[in-house]
Amino acid sequence: MSTSARFLLAPSPAGLLTPAAPTPSVVDPNSEVFQGSIQSRRPPVIPSNPSDGEHPKKHRRVVSSHKEEKGEPGSPVHHSGEDVSKEAFSGSIAGSRRAGLKEDPRTTRVVFVNDSSRSTADSVAGNKVRTSKYTLLTFLPRNLFEQFQRVAYIYFLIIVALNQIPALAVFGRTASIFPLAFVLIATALKDAYEDWARHRSDMEENNRTSLVFDGVSFTPKKWKHIKVGEMVKVLANQIVAADMVLWATSEASGLAYVETMNLDGESNLKTRYAKQETATKNPEDEAVGVTLICELPNRNIYEFQAYLDLHGTHIPLGPNNIILRGCELKNTSWIIGVVVYAGKETKAMLNNSGAQSKRSRLERQMNRETMWLVIFLLVLCSVGGIGMGVWVQAHHDDLNTLPYYRKKDFEDNEDYRYYGVFGEAVVAFLSCVIVFQVMVPIALYISLELVRLWQSRFMTRDMEMFHSTSNSRFQCRALNINEDLGQVKYVFSDKTGTLTENKMEFHSASVFGYDYDNAQVTIDPVGAGEGMITHDDNAVVLGDQKWKPKVGAKVDPQLFRLLQGPADTAESKAAHEYMLVLAACNTVVPTRVQLAANGEITMKAASNDSGPGLSGFIEYQGESPDEQALVAAAASYGYVLLERNFDNILINVMGKPKRYQILGVHEFDSVRKRMSVIIRMPDGTIKLFVKGADNAVMDIVKTEDDEISQSEVHTGIVGITNQHLESYSRKGLRTLVIASRELDSKLFENWRYKYDIASTDLHNRAGLLRDTSQMVETSLTLLGATAIEDRLQDGVPETIALLREAGIKVWVLTGDKQETAISIGYSCRLLTHDMHKLIVHESTKEGALETLVSMKAKYGISAEQDEHSIQNGGSTKSGNGDSSHRYSGSYDNMNGSFSSFGDNLLADKNNSRKQLALIIDGNSLVHALHPDVEQELFEVARACKVVICCRVAPLQKAAVVNLIKSKTGELTLAIGDGANDVSMIQMADVGVGLSGQEGRQAVMASDFSMGQFRFLKRLLLVHGHWNYQRLSYMILYNFYRNAVFVLMLFWFILYTAFSPQNAVTDWSLVFYSLIYTSIPTIVVATLDKNLSSRTLFKFPALYGAGQREQSYNQRLFWITMLDTIWQSLVLFYVPYMSYRQSDVDLYGLGSIWTFGVVLLVNLHLAMDVQRWNWLAHASIWGSIVATFVVMLVLDSLAVEAFLPNLGTMKHIMGQVAFWLDLVLIIPIALLPRFCVIVMKQRFWPSDIQIAREGEIRGTLNFSRTERQPPAVELNKLPPA
């Protein structure tokens, strides 16, 4: 993953992305991929670098500018701002004037400093915030509206409404309301509790106080009363109340350190600057009357465009000059800022939206089966309605004489409600709908949420997914897709920081055509004397101060001695300038850390007024590990960066401090893919230093066609350096190219004029600065290249091997060079030397199409084939629901070691006759993702065992994921650790973020987060398998449980003239799903497991059961429905045949049926429990006992609503037939199911059944090295 493109997406604390400027053409803008589903589902993307290893992530910019007086450079006046996606701000000429500038109030905001009344005149928001969802007035209507987004709730609402109609009220109106009311109230209480926590947080936030300038002094003021334009003073370790432009700080340099953990989750300190023109202006000492013009509020936390109108002089402001609400001041005594955005207009609040919602595949399939149940329900009700109509027609002449159906009440001589044959049929149909409403299980929705909640708890507390190094536990950020973890088919992974550690170490240097790759820890240089430094003690002495870089780097002895010697050769001169570029061309800020006598560590910005007699360490503060590694390497070779101010930097060059004036900085952006800084050297010459991606810098170095003379030496250096770059890439190293150029005064003045104009523009600043950079970034002199090592994380090769054995395809999407990506592929065992590598590197759509078509023809790839069919010589894979690893024998044929089973499950490893690997770069993807070519790309990629996409941009990552999702319908998982992975993470069905070195943008946008890539194997193979198996069974069981109850009621209406007469009490109808049978379902679905984690790791191919939907599919659904019909017939007819000649009334029969169905479904569940525990016993047997007790209590209530049932339970329990019926119902109803299970497991066992049998018998051989990571003690886990 690219550190250079780390900020291409800016997620909010809730996981959303910030809006951004138009995206460069990394995907064909005319393609359906760009315009279609991705565009509709993907939030806007800030332009980013398509390269992953080309350039360190850019952040704070420290730039100076000049007064423009008579064409001579003047005093430094400003620094730059921070913007990774755009070079929103670099230095400018402080005295530049924009005569006649007119700001459009529709696109800009005018803030009158220290005059809040004028600043807030145009309906500017106050600083009071509200993150809660509801208020007292809106809670009820809004909460109900949100809950009724579920179609099932609308269905039950219709049922309740129908039951309130007297003609259709087949059971108590109050009882009909209870189920829906219970669900709505329970959900509303949960939502209210969650929202009350937000209300309390809001009240605490709004009532905090900050020091606000009242015209005389700074006095405390509540946050909610702070207004735009006011000046706020923030003290150390306090949180910033609003978005404010930095005016002054306690540091003479205007530097301030802030922590943005509350905003973007990043814990590393960031630097912000006050402009030099304002840093000395204290509002308590002198009146402040200036105007600040800025852009309108927006959600981009990494961009800010504004300028300060200081008496007609426009001073540009950028992201480095603004501190956002929620940031915490660190290592700085105080700051003063001007509020520009307050309350709901702050960037933090604009980003405070809910995370995008995802629905699991299992839930979507459940909705499909729910529709079948509704159709089934309508069929049953139609039978009841039509039957009633036919019966009424057949007995039309006898309706007044039938004892149980009369049209007239002869006692009162009044007519009963009679609607005719058709009307009676309609009434019967609607009444049946009410009686049979439980066919759709409303309790299932609550059960799902509860089980998912416990599953998330188990995953969060899993000791084997706790990363002790970073003290981070697994986090479940989306509760509704836990089961999708058990069905993943494709894993799309970033490389840098995901497969690798993203802890950069300087490895090799290519300087002037020489490869210095023999890095060592310590060196004893020859002839070290005065003015020399040694690697072992490269401390810098400044007067009576002594400072030493805290982190060093290994150095090459030959290069080290070359730098120690005199700069009298072309090679040594190039080496010195090479190191100078590493130390100067960056945005790293050195801080001086010292340990006080009391043991307290203090940190402050490095400056020339640090005080006498101080000593300690220099620590480099930077958001990019790449830049920190390069600066540390330069320091190890003798170029120690000591200070960075607005307009200059101080570098200790081989023991001699030298100050360099910064004239301008062109930040890294995704179009240029390089960074440049213009420096005035101590001798007065002006030089341009450049570093960037190889393809971005090599294209602008001197060539033989340049007007500037080109030496043969330089030509040779270019060729040799290219060879070194290729060699570094093959070793998996990250590369950058270093170059420089001396600028003449005329070119510099032309550049400076345009640079000033561009840096104060509020509307197209990035584009103008990019155009300005092209004036000087040309005809460069190549100095060399750098190689940085980023090592693989622990357990990555083993994890990838297990995932592949599980049938999961692992794709790597990276911005690194092709050679680097291939090298990492071999290192992590993604690629093997016996694979056929299909490399696509085309620059046109026609070329990409031709290459892909030729590959298909050469390897016999067709649209129906995937990697398995290619390996098996063209055969297609088995149909849905069939295991691809089927054990061919019975249980008796299993040997003691159970090895034949393992050989079958791991057969894929040995069946690799023609494994293919596709490697394609970003330029080729631009054309391959075109609608005319994408089908060919899909067919080739699907036939390959491995796919590596290199040089890809974030938008392309999302496009690749979307291609597989849309074409295959398989579940996809994307995993990454940086902002440039956010689009891919949100596009995938399951998004996993790693909390690594690149901040927490990926974590905040993900569904699940964890500390290391290796935890993915346990997340999928163990928890994913368990989650899917448990929820699949729970859904099918809920369908069965309610359907058997409804069918039992349906058989009864066949003997009641098709009327909706009910033998079961109204309250039993309500309690059946909510009380009698719900608890066992939840307990079993939460705790039961078919296989141990040990077995699942031993045989990863068992994961394929979820991919093939073996536990939940339409075939299983209809088999369950057939079994339900049989059980309901037994349940109804056994008591009916026993009592049809007796004096037991229908309520007595209803009592038998009620208790019988509860006993039946609980024993059905007990048959399927695979691992008993005390909770399973307590819930199942306790549910049966509880039902019995509740029925006795209801039977004893002498109130009007229960009078028809009074004493019926006690009466029928006294008869032997009652108990005999219960004894007969259970074996007769469950016998077919039991026989089918026995036959299937005996003669046609699935992989899971075989493995489970092996566990029970103890015949599984675990002699091989266990594949589980070491456990972490529970008491060492951080609090949740």
What would the keywords be for this entry?
1280 residues; Calcium-transporting ATPase, cytoplasmic transduction domain A; 6 domains; 9-stranded mixed beta sheet; 41 helices; 38 strands; 40% helix; 16% strand; elongated; disordered C terminus; nucleotide-binding
CATH superfamily of the largest domain: Calcium-transporting ATPase, cytoplasmic domain N
What is the residue-mean pLDDT, rounded to a whole number? 77
Percent range of helical residues: 40-55%
Task: Based on the coordinates given, report the CATH architecture of the largest domain.
Answer: 3-Layer(aba) Sandwich
Strand line-up of the largest beta sheet: 16-38-37-36-17-32-35-34-33
Overall shape: it is elongated
- Count of helices? 41
Share of β-strand residues? 15-25%
**Computed structural class:** alpha+beta
Organism: Marchantia polymorpha
Biased composition (Low complexity): 8-25
Active site: 494 (4-aspartylphosphate intermediate)
Cofactor: Mg(2+)
Provide structural commentary:
The chain has 1280 residues and is α+β, with helices and mostly antiparallel strands. It has six domains: 135-207; 225-251 and 260-349, Calcium-transporting ATPase, cytoplasmic transduction domain A (Distorted Sandwich), CATH 2.70.150; 362-439, no CATH class; 465-496 and 789-858 and 911-1014, HAD superfamily/HAD-like (Rossmann fold, 3-Layer(aba) Sandwich); 499-524 and 536-703 and 711-788, 3-Layer(aba) Sandwich (Calcium-transporting ATPase, cytoplasmic domain N), CATH 3.40.1110; 1017-1254, no CATH class. It is 40% helix and 16% strand. Strands 16-38-37-36-17-32-35-34-33 form a nine-stranded mixed sheet, with helices on both faces. A nine-stranded antiparallel sheet has the order 19-18-31-30-29-28-27-26-25, with helices on both faces. The protein has a six-stranded antiparallel sheet with strand order 3-2-4-13-5-11, with no helix packed on it. Strand 22 (589-595) and strand 23 form a beta hairpin. It is elongated. It starts with 31 loop residues before the first helix and ends in a 23-residue tail after the last helix.
